[in-house]
């Protein structure tokens, strides 16, 4: 099993989370495994009706260390509260931890690296246009941890955001990131090319009804997933019959040609 001694050099912006991971289970667990369970724990906490089955499974796995997952979630919230300011409107702490762990282990199940935040902001600014500002929805079909959607929401809030990713961990990070940033929309685990669907979360749906702005998620069935809604096919245009041209009558009268 992997040890966590190398987690000493974690980025300062996410030290609060990584320090708890470093001491988790007295070095008995792989850090990537702990992170995946932490993401699942966060999803369970944000689900409107919770997830008792998940909680029981994690309690059985970690025993007395189970409470550290709650402390990690608390550390994440504190980091977000500190990092989000009037000048900095979004921050991807989860993606930062993910990338850090992925860079430290070749055997890690965390195998992606995401678009740098500054580049996300640049792409958002290049994408904006008067036509885009009038649109009600924004979609990212390979969303990773949701950074591009967070960037767009920071610059032009109030849109319905839809993110899809083939990786379940990334999808869950997107859902958590969208929820804590106050976004609304859906995060879907699916293959955007083949349209193979796995699961989906509705993000902060009750905010539209005037409920308190508490981050929350609702599981969505495939039939109600926006990304799986198949647009009605445009009916084929029927062949328009051409009007019949009346026959012209030629009448000869006293050497004069008449068409009428």
Describe this structure in words.
The chain has 260 residues and is of the alpha/beta class. It folds into two domains: 5-104, no CATH class; 117-228, no CATH class. The longest helix has 17 residues, at 67-83. The chain contains nine helices and seven strands; from the N terminus they run αααααααβαβαβββββ. The strands form two sheets. The protein has a five-stranded mixed β-sheet, with helices on one face. The protein has a two-stranded antiparallel sheet with strand order 6-7. Helix 2 (31-46) crosses helix 4. Belongs to the N(4)/N(6)-methyltransferase family. InterPro entries: DNA_methylase_A-5, SAM-dependent_MTases_sf, Type-I_RE_MTase_Subunit. One of its GO terms (molecular function) is N-methyltransferase activity.
Task: Sum this structure up briefly.
GO terms for molecular function: DNA binding; N-methyltransferase activity. The protein is of the alpha/beta class. The chain has 9 helices and 7 strands.
